[in-house]
């Protein structure tokens, strides 16, 4: 394989696996390694079934493609990886004739396409929501300023301190509503991007959460120490991590045994060739915050990143909305998967290389 061809294959976002006429792996590009969670070096010369298993008919189809030299495409195939994970993909098989026929298998994960479509839909809905909130904020804050000013003038005219208590209530409530509207709008300053170590921030989160529950919560770290520094606004990213960790802590407190067997897991990994929005990134930091709480109710699972949506009676429903807005402004993405006993919030942040 020439240097140029090698470079092209290694920079493709499409996973490519090449097998020989015995269906043994002879090449995997980095996108395939990332998708299959396996290395080309380890699997070189090993049967394709060591990488993934589909069904007996798919093996027959591959062997027939070698015999007849006919390409074919399969949609919505379900692969069972060597890790035990399940992957839904579309794949194209192309025979290459030479001294021995080889097969080039190009795989496109359907979950990635679904995720991109879901992200675009969510961003579109959130932009609509933000436009609505901005309009409402303008209409609410203007009269609030007038109400507050009038209450202050009225307070000066009142001689009875007991009557001034009523104007103080008006002023305090006007301030509270104004602050609430500001929170709904999210951070107004652009991110102050600087190089930072994500593990330092996660350790700070661990300290704060442990202090809040007086050490009564088990926190497990599963860090990838090879993750390089990434560019982010330290305060804003800290706000995101704390919002998610506190939500997890509060959710786990509702378990039948409280925090006795609760566990918060912080995990970091790198991921290569990931598309976020309409941009492909060669290297991305992945940060998972996982709890074993009761899970997010099905009725709000698809709406948790919208303002004023909360599963708690006393929740404002703003924390996750703000977190999602901050991560989006960092060109990243925030996702959530939840079922009873396992909720995972995942943050993807691009790493400049």
From TrEMBL:
<dbReference type="InterPro" id="IPR035965">
    <property type="entry name" value="PAS-like_dom_sf"/>
</dbReference>
<keyword id="KW-0597">Phosphoprotein</keyword>
<dbReference type="Pfam" id="PF00989">
    <property type="entry name" value="PAS"/>
</dbReference>
<dbReference type="InterPro" id="IPR036097">
    <property type="entry name" value="HisK_dim/P_sf"/>
</dbReference>
<dbReference type="InterPro" id="IPR003661">
    <property type="entry name" value="HisK_dim/P_dom"/>
</dbReference>
<keyword id="KW-0547">Nucleotide-binding</keyword>
<dbReference type="InterPro" id="IPR000014">
    <property type="entry name" value="PAS"/>
</dbReference>
<dbReference type="InterPro" id="IPR003594">
    <property type="entry name" value="HATPase_dom"/>
</dbReference>
<comment type="function">
    <text>Member of the two-component regulatory system NtrB/NtrC, which controls expression of the nitrogen-regulated (ntr) genes in response to nitrogen limitation. Under conditions of nitrogen limitation, NtrB autophosphorylates and transfers the phosphoryl group to NtrC. In the presence of nitrogen, acts as a phosphatase that dephosphorylates and inactivates NtrC.</text>
</comment>
<keyword id="KW-0378">Hydrolase</keyword>
<dbReference type="GO" id="GO:0006355">
    <property type="term" value="P:regulation of DNA-templated transcription"/>
</dbReference>
<keyword id="KW-0902">Two-component regulatory system</keyword>
<keyword id="KW-0535">Nitrogen fixation</keyword>
<keyword id="KW-0808">Transferase</keyword>
<dbReference type="GO" id="GO:0000155">
    <property type="term" value="F:phosphorelay sensor kinase activity"/>
</dbReference>
<dbReference type="InterPro" id="IPR013767">
    <property type="entry name" value="PAS_fold"/>
</dbReference>
<dbReference type="Pfam" id="PF02518">
    <property type="entry name" value="HATPase_c"/>
</dbReference>
<dbReference type="GO" id="GO:0016787">
    <property type="term" value="F:hydrolase activity"/>
</dbReference>
<protein>
    <recommendedName>
        <fullName>Sensory histidine kinase/phosphatase NtrB</fullName>
        <ecNumber>2.7.13.3</ecNumber>
    </recommendedName>
</protein>
<dbReference type="InterPro" id="IPR004358">
    <property type="entry name" value="Sig_transdc_His_kin-like_C"/>
</dbReference>
<feature type="domain" description="Histidine kinase">
    <location>
        <begin position="135"/>
        <end position="353"/>
    </location>
</feature>
<dbReference type="InterPro" id="IPR036890">
    <property type="entry name" value="HATPase_C_sf"/>
</dbReference>
<dbReference type="Pfam" id="PF00512">
    <property type="entry name" value="HisKA"/>
</dbReference>
<keyword id="KW-0418">Kinase</keyword>
<dbReference type="InterPro" id="IPR005467">
    <property type="entry name" value="His_kinase_dom"/>
</dbReference>
<keyword id="KW-0067">ATP-binding</keyword>
<dbReference type="GO" id="GO:0005524">
    <property type="term" value="F:ATP binding"/>
</dbReference>
């Amino acid at each position: 394989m020439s240097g140029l061809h090698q470079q092209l294959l290694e920079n493709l976002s499409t996973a490519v696996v090449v097998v020989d006429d015995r269906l043994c792996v002879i090449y995997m590009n980095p996108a395939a390694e990332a998708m299959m969670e396996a290395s080309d070096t380890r699997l070189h010369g090993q049967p394709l079934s060591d990488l993934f298993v589909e069904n007996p008919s798919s093996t027959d189809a591959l062997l027939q493609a070698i015999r007849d030299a006919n390409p074919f495409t399969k949609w919505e195939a379900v692969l069972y990886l060597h890790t035990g994970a399940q992957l839904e993909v579309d794949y194209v098989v192309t025979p290459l004739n030479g001294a021995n026929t080889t097969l080039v298998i190009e795989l496109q994960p359907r979950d990635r396409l679904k995720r991109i479509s879901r992200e675009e839909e969510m961003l579109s809905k959130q932009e609509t929501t933000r436009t609505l909130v901005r309009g409402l904020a303008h209409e609410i804050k203007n009269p609030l300023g007038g109400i507050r000013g009038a209450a202050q003038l009225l307070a000066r005219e009142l001689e009875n301190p007991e009557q001034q208590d009523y104007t103080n209530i008006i002023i305090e409530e006007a301030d509270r509503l104004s602050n609430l509207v500001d929170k709904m709008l999210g951070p107004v300053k652009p991110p102050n991007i600087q190089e930072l170590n994500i593990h330092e921030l996660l350790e700070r989160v661990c300290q704060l959460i442990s202090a809040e529950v007086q050490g009564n919560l088990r926190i497990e770290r599963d860090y990838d120490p090879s993750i390089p520094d990434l560019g982010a606004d330290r305060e804003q990213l800290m706000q995101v991590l704390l919002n998610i960790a506190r939500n997890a802590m509060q959710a786990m407190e509702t378990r039948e045994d409280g925090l006795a067997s609760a566990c918060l897991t912080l995990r970091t990994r790198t991921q290569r060739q990931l598309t976020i929005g309409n941009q492909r990134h060669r290297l991305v930091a992945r940060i998972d915050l996982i709890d074993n709480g009761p899970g997010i109710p099905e009725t709000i699972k698809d709406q948790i990143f919208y303002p004023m949506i909360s599963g708690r009676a006393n929740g404002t429903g703003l924390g996750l909305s703000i977190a999602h807005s901050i991560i989006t402004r960092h060109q990243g993405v925030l996702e959530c998967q939840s079922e009873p006993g396992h909720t995972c919030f995942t943050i993807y942040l691009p790493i400049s290389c």
